[in-house]
Amino acid sequence: MLKKLRLKFVALNMATVAVVLAVVFTAICVIDHQQSVARVQEALDAAVAHAGETAGGPFGGGDDLGGQAPAGTASEGATPPEIGGKRGGSDPATPVAVFSVSNGNALEAVQTRTTASLADGVLAQAAEQLADAPEGFGSLDGLGLFYEKRAAAGTVYLAFADMSAANGWQTLALTLAGVGVAALAAFLVISVFFSRWALRPVERAWVQQRRFVADASHDLKTPLTVILANTSILLERPERSVASQSQWVESTQHEAEQMQSLVGDLLLLAQTDEGAEKPPMERLDLTDLVEGELLQFESVAFERKVELRSQLEPGMAVCGNAPLLRKLAGTLLDNACKYADEGGSVDTELRRTARQVELAVRNTGSAIAPEDLPHVFDRFYRADKARTCDDSGHGLGLAIARAIAEEHGGTLSAESDETSGTTFTLTLPTAES
After folding, report:
1. Which CATH number fits domain 201-273: 1.10.10.410, 3.40.50.300, 3.30.70.20, 1.10.287.130?
2. Where is the composition biased (Low complexity) (predicted)?
3. pTM for this structure?
4. Cβ–Cβ < 8 Å for 21, 184
5. Could you tell me which of 359, 295, 354 has the C-alpha nearest to residue 325?
6. Arithmetic mean of pLDDT, 379-394
């Protein structure tokens, strides 16, 4: 499944980038083509306007450009194309052919502005097609020409430029296509690399979910097996009284309670995962709450021959949900009493730090192995020294405790070494006055 997800991730990224590049490169080519056509039109306009100066036409602007026509090629006052001086414009760079049409429809080249030539056959076809055409700029696709038609002082001027002058976008398109292919190849490598990195949390969650389902199924299967066995025994002895078979009834009840506890823990974790609405919070005294839990565990500690000691600062106010915080404190104390060595001790300390309340529960005894310590808050995680001294738990207590701490805006951490034992530290923000 993860492999398919990774392939979909890469394919989606590549498709998105390909579409974006195609749109951007197409826009660049269209804009370049439009600018090229505009430059051609500018060159044709300039050529026709200059040709009109000879006839005193109104569209030449009447300005003397300061140049001189080649001897014997134009009448006095006409000027050739001006170049140099960083004057801008594109007319000198675009070859144009300018012709004047007399009343007899005879075509005569305007030498001062003509920088290109036309074959006689092409010129004849162009003149025929433009005979009845309106003035202005246009194109003759069949002849591969742009044209500009103007009339001044009874003379019609025709200026022509080759369409190839506006075909620079084709070379640009090929260049951009090569760049696009190279960019897609590079992005493919990057996408494959980042897909592994981006999907790593998903892969980890998938593995944890599979382990979670397997462990939950195992923990539910065991009590169900016992319940079915007890029920089978009871059904085989219908003549006996309930009192005589109370051990099977009590065993069934115990296993059912274990299942109920496990299902309740699973539901609590599921609600936390789904980001369900936060439980009602209120200002409460954490000192009183922890003292109440310590009283509950005095008998447990005595039975396990563990000394229970505490040092609690009074009046530690926090904002939280009392049942959940009571469950959290109870989990830490139960865990400490369970794994403390015989004759050892459990120390509970509640103190105030900068804008925080810190609850530390430490027990003597064997330390949690370094390789197990990062996983003690994982669901159903089992390590000999971390979780499984007996079968009373399901490996969910510390996971729930951390979820409760985070739901209250706090943290829960663990430290363990052979010298000082194991310490779980809860930090919660203090309640605002």
Report:
1. 1.10.287.130
2. 419-433
3. 0.51
4. yes
5. 359
6. 54
